[in-house]
Amino acid sequence: MKKLRxxxxxxxxxxxxxxxxxxxxKVNLSNPNATLNTHLYFLQPDSYQPNKSAKTIYGxxxxxAIRKAIKIKQILDGKGLxxxxxxxxINSNYxxxxxxxxxxxxxxxxDRMPEIYLEKIEGKWYYSRETITKIDAIYxxxxxxxxxxxxxxxxxxxxxxxxxxxxxxxxxxxxLFILNIFIYIIVKKIAFSILQRIxxxxxxxxxxxDIDNELKKLAHPIALLICIxxxxxxxxxxxxxxxxxxxxxxxxxxxxxxxWIYVFLKLVKVVMKMYSEFTENTHSRLDDQLVPxxxxxxxxxxxxxxxxxxxxxxxxxTTTLIAGATIGGLAFALASQDTVKNLIGTIMIFLDxxxxxxxxxxxxxxxxxxxxxxFRSTRVRAADTSxxxxxxxxxxxxxxxxxxxxxxxxxxxxxxxxxxxxxxxIEAFVNGVRKIVxxxxxxxxxxxxxxxxxxxxxxxxxxxNVYFKxxxxxxxxxxxxxxxxxxxxxxxxxxxEFAFPSTTVTIEQFPDKSNLSPKYNTDKARLESSxxxxxxxxxxxxxxxxxxxxx
Length: 551
What we know:
By secondary structure, the chain is an alpha+beta fold. The protein has helices spanning 2-24, 32-41, 50-53, 62-78, 129-142, 146-153, 167-202, 209-234, 242-280, 286-313, 318-335, 337-352, 392-395, 423-439, 473-494, 524-540; strands spanning 105-109, 113-121, 124-127, 161-162, 165-166, 360-363, 366-373, 377-382, 387-391, 400-402, 409-417, 449-455, 460-468. A 5-stranded antiparallel β-sheet has the order 9-8-7-6-10. It has a 3-stranded antiparallel β-sheet with strand order 1-2-3, with helices on one face.
């Protein structure tokens, strides 16, 4: 009984002491940290003094300022925006350096709620004029008009609590979840239909089952993202506590970021497949080689940006990370200049396109077929099937002879006849070779040269300059074979002999011996008959089949 009396005696004293303690807590607007602390502290249940909290609102009468201060706190609570006072500046002269001009303001949540911020007015920190102007509109967007009416029709049973959550809040969350299931099913079909139309409009008359499958996979996360945004829109209406909202919004933001990463990865895959289909219809094969390079680049870019976004959600200062990565990247670039040069060389190759895949090129001492263009080097396969890896930095600087871009393959050679060949036979041989070139199916009959061009050390020189129609190396060699065989047959038929480098001592005549010089038959009719015979055989000679185009 005495203890009860003592309790009644000291209870008024305790209340009086608490009130005196609250009265001793003064309004402090000297810096952003003090202003936020003043606003939120005097709106807590244990220290509820809205008059003092309203001091953070500049230029309004007391009642309006109280309503504005309360709405700001309700918005922060509804969005789960928990102020970390350890990160709020205590400098009274704090300047926001992010932006075009540096101003005395502090934005608490620049990513999620940039409209609510503090600014320095007449030496003190208040909620900005822009914030006060927009706060009613922001409040109505967070807490729609029907919330108050909905609260009025909730029965007493709905306000009973299970733990710290009321029953109506649990039922509201369940209803919101069920509605989102139906929305997900509908939006997924609509998203897939829209993506298919975009695909058909970009690549007309081209259908691909693989792309359709990827579009279906892309439609799933798009629908889920819309559902997440709907949940984020209506969660504040359920009026959970700030602690609950903080964690649920963090979970939703993490899931949303992961889905966005997935969406962009799938989008990169779909775009690359569409681009791959496009490049297959072009003549250039260098574009085909660009597909995997662009795919790897954009995939890496999406992952890096996504990781930075996730780190930002967990409170990591990504600005510091980016600055550190920039410095480290600069040091790495200085230490690996050759790699950077090769990357720039790769870009130059794809921009200038000095060659395409499967082109036969001469690059310095390397001669062969281009097989692959990578980030660092280009692979060239020589005629003996050996492989050369040429750094792209060097390849972009040296002179490249792209034989794959030739209109025709030129072939030039000299035929050496013996010095004792009569002029009539030389003329007949030249005319015969000309006719062979004209009748050859793989040579240009309108552009060739077969002429007696000079006197060599051991032979009379007949120049043969022809152009083969096919650019394939294997076809060219087969065409040369047919041309050479026909020329040898012509020489044999005419009785013309080819010379070779030699030193010959000729004794014109021994006593009682006949002349050792070869006897040439220069009968005109016989020469024409021989040429006709060789040309007829050449026409009837079929070229070999299954000729390999390249080595």
